[in-house]
Amino acid sequence: MNKSDSERVRTVLDKMGFRWTDHENEAQLVGILACSVRQKAIDKVYSRISHWNRIKNKRSLITFVSGCILPADKIKFLKLFDLVFTMDELPELPDIIRQYGIVTPYSVNPESDLAPTGDEAKNQKIAEFPNLLELLQSEDSLKIDVTHKIQNNETSMDERSIMDGFWHIQPNYSSPFEAFVPIQNGCDKFCTFCAVPYTRGREVSRPHEEILQEISSLINHGCKSITLLGQNVNSYGLDKKNEGISFPELLRMIGELGNISQKKIWVYFTSPHPRDMTNEVIDVIAEYECLAKQIHLPLQSGDDEVLARMNRKHSLQKYREIVEYIRFKIPGATLFTDIIVGFTGETKQQFEQSRLCFPEFQYNMAYIAIYSPRPGAVSSRWKDDIPHQVKKERLHILTKDLEKSSQTHTKKMIGRTYQVLVTGLDRKKLYLSGYTEGKINVRFQPIDTSLIGKFVSLKIVSATEFSVQGELVEVADLKIK
Fold first, then answer.
1. pLDDT for 115
2. Domain containing 446: what range?
3. Is residue 142 one of the residues assigned to a domain?
4. 287 CB-near residues (< 8 Å, 6+ apart)
5. In the structure, what pLDDT confidence band is assigned to residue 135 with cuts at 50, 70 and 90?
6. What per-residue confidence (pLDDT) applies to 144?
7. CA gap 58, 238 in Å, rounded
8. Which is more confidently placed, 418 or 428?
9. Is the dihedral of CA 234, 217, 439, 481 positive or negative?
């Protein structure tokens, strides 16, 4: 989500006349998109701004922070950063920067070529397309007039209107073949451990016409991998009651876009909530080739009592039924999850219940986090009664359990041929790397950088816990056969 946000921040700054530099010591404006969901991430923010503020003694430097920020963190950041703004305030950033006294080509002449005119101005209004085929044939893309301001001083202004200004910013995509498309913002679930409702606000669904137009534009421009983003993607449309479409309906329309385009693409989504995961979602994924057969389904805990204290509003049995239907309907799907260890009051027996989920559900990947109280979340008022050392031990144990379940899958891949999207060089720059449709990391030789951004067929020859190595068979046809 922060990476997606940064692509829109980049657009606004580019339109103001700023130019990106890969070298921090050359920068005049530096910033962070923070994440208050975990304390470790916030600790890194404080470390970074401390470094930047020391640099200010030697040269001119403007600092900013945005992203997911808790009110308590925001108060502290106001004393440390020059500029603090929320994502829904991003369209206001040009004024915020100009008021701070920074001169840019845009601030000198805001009526220059940065202001849209003619066809560009007309394109700012989302076109109404009679069918998906016409949508795919359109060359239009979303535009933004960064001079547009959202007047939020009216009590009738709702959160959807506030987010509209942000969503209308055309992102400066960081990759020509991978893209993140936000479809929903905020959360209404109020899990007791989570700060998202306090950093992102209530659930707001982006208009489906805008989502489809952005995706069609990406397909037309050769994008291969698209990830739909939201705090709870499968609650998409629920905030609109009977005025919008549901998440399965949105997926179906995206699936039809993929069929009509006749181009090979993989469409992912993250993250859903088990409470809103329906069989219909799984049915649609099974039906359409472009909807990737990889599902991220956060569990958080394998114990019903802990799930109740977390306010997850689903039981382990409900989660089990979802996984069973996934295995029945999409046998080849990979399964990812999120787990928290050391949540307040978690007993050894309750932790063991979480351990049992790994051999049962055979996770391919799990993002395991040590619990840390977040100011504002309900659980922050409870005693953090699990010693940090115990949390670290539980993290280590679950990681070993994950390695076993994941390697069960990667070993079965040996000898089989898979299509892989090549994304770049590995860390040591000795192999090309990429991932399968199921998001399993792959590396292979020889190094041919012309393959980056393309689909290739690889025969898997070896496997580790979380990745595999393959041999190049052929460069895959980019058309669906």
1. 37
2. 417-475
3. no
4. 252, 255
5. low
6. 38
7. 52
8. 418
9. positive
Q: Are 309 and 192 in contact (CB under 8 A)?
A: yes
- Residue 412's H or E segment, with its range, is helix 388-412
Cβ atoms 246, 282 nearer than 8 A? no
Task: Return the percent helix, strand and coil in the chain, to nearest 5.
Answer: 40, 20, 40
Which of 109, 193, 188 has the alpha carbon at shortest distance from 147? 109
Lowest mean pLDDT segment, chosen from 18-22, 89-93, 161-165, 217-221: 161-165
CA dihedral 425, 34, 206, 255 (to 10 degrees): 20
For residue 441, what are the β-bridge partners? 435, 467
Question: Same domain for 346 and 224?
Answer: yes
Residue with tokens 């106001």: 78
| pLDDT at 199 (0 to 100) | 78
Task: Quick: pLDDT tens for 352-373.
Answer: 999 999 999 999 999 999 998 8
Domain count for the chain: 3
In sequence order, the 6+-apart residues with CB closer than 8 A to the CB of 200 are 68, 185, 186, 187, 231
Average pLDDT of the residues in 259-280 = 95
Running DSSP on this structure, what letter comes out for residue 87?
G
Report the distance separating Cα 297 and Cα 271, nearest Å.
Answer: 7
Strands, E assignment, 132-216: 178-182, 184-185, 204-205
Match 């689909």 to its residue by tokens: 455
Comparing CA positions, the residue from 90, 47, 98, 58 lying closest to residue 185 is 90
CATH number at residue 445: 2.40.50.140
Question: Domain check: are 377 and 436 in the same one?
Answer: no
Of the candidate ranges 134-138, 206-210, 279-283, the one whose mean pLDDT is the lowest: 134-138
